[in-house]
Amino acid sequence: MIPAESTEMTSGNGADRSVCVIGLGYVGLPIAVRAVERGYSVSGVDLDERKISLINEGKSPIEDKTLSEELPKFPFEATADPTVISNADIILICVPTPVDDLYNPDLGPVRGAVSMIAKHARKGSLVVLESTVNPGVSEEVISPMLTEAGFSVGTDIHLAHCPERINPGDAKWSVKNIPRVVGSTSAEGLDRAVAFYGSIVDGEIRPMKSIREAEAVKIVENSFRDINIAFVNELAKSFDQLGIDVKDVIQGAATKPFSFMPHFPSCGVGGHCIPVDPYYLIERAKQSGFDHRFLKLAREINNSMPSYTVELLQDTLNELEKPLKGTRIGVLGLAYKPNIDDLRESPAEDVIHELRRHGAVVTTFDPHVPRLSDVSSLDELLDRSDALVLATAHKEFLDEITPQRLADAGITAFVDGQNAFDRDAMRAAGIAYKGIGR
After folding, report:
1. Are 116 and 85 in contact (CB under 8 A)?
2. 155-184 per-position pLDDT tens digit
3. What is the mean pLDDT of the chain?
4. What is the CATH number of domain 18-209?
5. What's the pLDDT tens digit per position in 33-74?
6. Is-same-fold flag (18-209; 245-438)?
7. CA–CA dist 58, 12 (Å, integer)
8. For residue 128, which of 164, 97, 91 has the smallest C-alpha distance?
């Protein structure tokens, strides 16, 4: 373990003083700002001209209080011109690693970033992949591309992997203090990567024995969460049939001070990590002849939750002798988690799709994503709705929605996809309330 740095500013191992970040999204932008804060000369490359313009104006393109405050204080040059890569000692790849419609891993953004590096990097550079990938990508995809460009990986260019750890909207844990793991294809690359991250992260930096181990760490982290969420989502379906409140049961189980970690069911799993990363391991293991049945089943269960949420609404409306088809349904929230504007893999999209597929008249509102909302206020949403689905538990909803307000607005049914509201209070107000497993 490498202990946290206590100094205000350190620049790597003394030789590495310039950084280029490729991909200025939820991962790359905070790291770029942090590197500037710690004394590095930083440039950033992105393909989104709007994002580039905002960053160069000192405005964060991401809804994040810390970034909005710190970007003007620690500015850097953002550009679409990849030639700035040639000025960097350290090059960070922070691009998306999505899956396609059939859940096949898409390494196109990573390959595109490496192609830029292969054309413009100078000898002696350290290339660090932060994007989440399956074990083997650094050695089987990135290293051959650099070799083909004329570099000797491990000699005149070094390759490392430090899987990103970012939790958008988290006031406690950020790129400044979340511990990191690092792996490399060479001893020098490992030393330099550990020194760099030790200089910008106020947390432990753990060197891994190989770059493949470092790649596996992030996949394991998110697969662990996916499996546990799938477990409680399946419990929610079961307990709904048994008349047991799954939220109460989980909270009861959480009183055990050891060997239990509470996870809670919901209308679906969102974000760029949990619903994506397991597929990278599933596919890579399949190529090696191993079938990850457990991971595939977890993904199947979690992918089913938006449809299950709509089924709950349909059943609730049926009890009121109302059809889902033609009924005005308000969807509260579009982002994948509370109090941010991040739409990546949001289950709200699937909930909306399923509602419309069943013929419902859907109206959406998200105070954090006004550009994609159908209405501009909660009042307007309530005026245009007969029933509601809570997809995202934004603070605004928790603060402003009361059972009486919904009753006064004529809302007859409410499916709480995040189990965020008081079930008994809703029902006492005459609203047909359903949670996920309660």
Report:
1. yes
2. 999 999 999 998 888 889 999 999 999 999
3. 94
4. 3.40.50.720
5. 999 999 999 999 999 999 999 999 999 999 999 999 999 999
6. yes
7. 25
8. 91
> If DSSP codes are grouped into helix, strand and coil, which group holds residue 328?
strand
Query: Where exactly are the structural domains of the chain?
Result: 18-209, 245-438
User: Rounded to whole angstroms, how far apart are CA atoms 377 and 343?
Assistant: 19
Active site residue ranges? 273
What number of CA atoms fall less than 13 Å from residue 10's CA on the CB side?
Answer: 16
What CA–CA distance (Å, rounded) separates 407 from 66?
Answer: 38
Query: Residues 332, 397: contact at Cβ < 8 Å?
Result: yes
Q: Which long-range contacts (CB under 8 A, 24 or more apart) does 304-307 make?
A: 304/233, 305/233, 305/265, 305/266, 305/267, 305/268, 305/269, 305/347, 305/436, 306/267, 306/268, 306/347, 306/350, 306/351, 306/353, 306/354, 307/350, 307/354
Q: How far apart are CA 204 and CA 2, in angstroms?
A: 5
Tell me the two tokens of residue 222. Answer: 């998110």
Q: Is the pLDDT of residue 27 over 50?
A: yes
Q: Is 39 buried (19+), middle (13-18) or exposed (0-12) by CB count in 10 A? A: middle
Identify the residue whose tokens are 């793991």: 181
| 245-438 classified as CATH 3.40.50.300 | no
317 and 387 Cβ atoms separated by less than 8 Å = yes
Rg (CA), the chain: 24
Q: How confident is the model at residue 101 (pLDDT cuts 50, 70, 90)?
A: confident
Residue 313 phi, psi (nearest 5): -65, -40
Distance CA 41, CA 89 (A): 10
CA distances from 80 to 45, 50, 55 (A): 5, 11, 12
